[in-house]
Amino acid sequence: MSRLVFGWLTSLMAATPLRLGYFLADALTEVHFRLFPARRHAALANLAVMLPRADRATRLGLVRRMMRSYNRMMFEFFRLPHMTRAELFGAVEVEGREHLEQAVARGRGVIATGCHVGNWELGGVMVAHWGYVLHAVAGVQFGRWLTPAVREAKTELAIHTISPEDGFRSILRALEHNEIVALMVDGDVYRHGVTVDFFGRETRFPAGPGVLAQRTGALIVCGLCERLGPGRFRFILEPALDPARFESAAALNAAVAAATERHIRARIDQWCIFQPLWETVPAAEHEPAGAAERARA
């Protein structure tokens, strides 16, 4: 049933004129803002850490824009399976493709890190269309009910999904074959991760990028796919981080965290994370039971 619903949604979004789709996504921003208080409170709590000098009105305005960006991303995501190669390449500007090419040429695999800015799914589709074998590490996406359909759709887009339960073995195998492993490094509370400085606060961060790079010699390429306007994007890939130039996995993870913070800070209104990242900041006091689960994007 989930595959039938997913197929219906992708067909409907693909048939919707671009201007109309964005109009509806924007029009539903206030609905998103009002009907999902746990998401609203979580975003406000995060912004209190990230922008401590901003007043509440400024933060509320940012939350609305973040929710608008998420609505737009959902519309774009469900259109993806029906986009032609020409449409995709025509919609996305690329900066730094040479950094990925040079990293792959080294022959030890590549760890691509990203964050939930703009349309993060589009970047992976671009890499797959360039002919690289891409493995995306992802857990639940768009709810447990739709996750199998989403993974199937990604397979059809030449993106292989690795679940966190698969462990490091599948990731190591991909890197040994000189393939690309994509890791999202924001948007979760990594209780078993490492501590880094993130927006001026000690934050739990995934240990994977640094540990994997130090163990395999794979280079790390940090990137993002920002939205320039309706149906227009810029995919940015930064120069690779070489693990040989860092004294430890911790130092390498700190560099990844710094790049991620820079990416988010410059486009904070496109950052689509709606759960609290800092446990010391109360995000959703007095929320009903189950609200925290609904807050997960």
Automatic annotation (TrEMBL):
<dbReference type="GO" id="GO:0016746">
    <property type="term" value="F:acyltransferase activity"/>
</dbReference>
<keyword id="KW-1003">Cell membrane</keyword>
<protein>
    <recommendedName>
        <fullName>Lysophospholipid acyltransferase family protein</fullName>
    </recommendedName>
</protein>
<keyword id="KW-0472">Membrane</keyword>
<keyword id="KW-0808">Transferase</keyword>
<keyword id="KW-0997">Cell inner membrane</keyword>
<dbReference type="GO" id="GO:0005886">
    <property type="term" value="C:plasma membrane"/>
</dbReference>
<dbReference type="InterPro" id="IPR004960">
    <property type="entry name" value="LipA_acyltrans"/>
</dbReference>
<keyword id="KW-0012">Acyltransferase</keyword>
<dbReference type="Pfam" id="PF03279">
    <property type="entry name" value="Lip_A_acyltrans"/>
</dbReference>
<dbReference type="GO" id="GO:0009247">
    <property type="term" value="P:glycolipid biosynthetic process"/>
</dbReference>
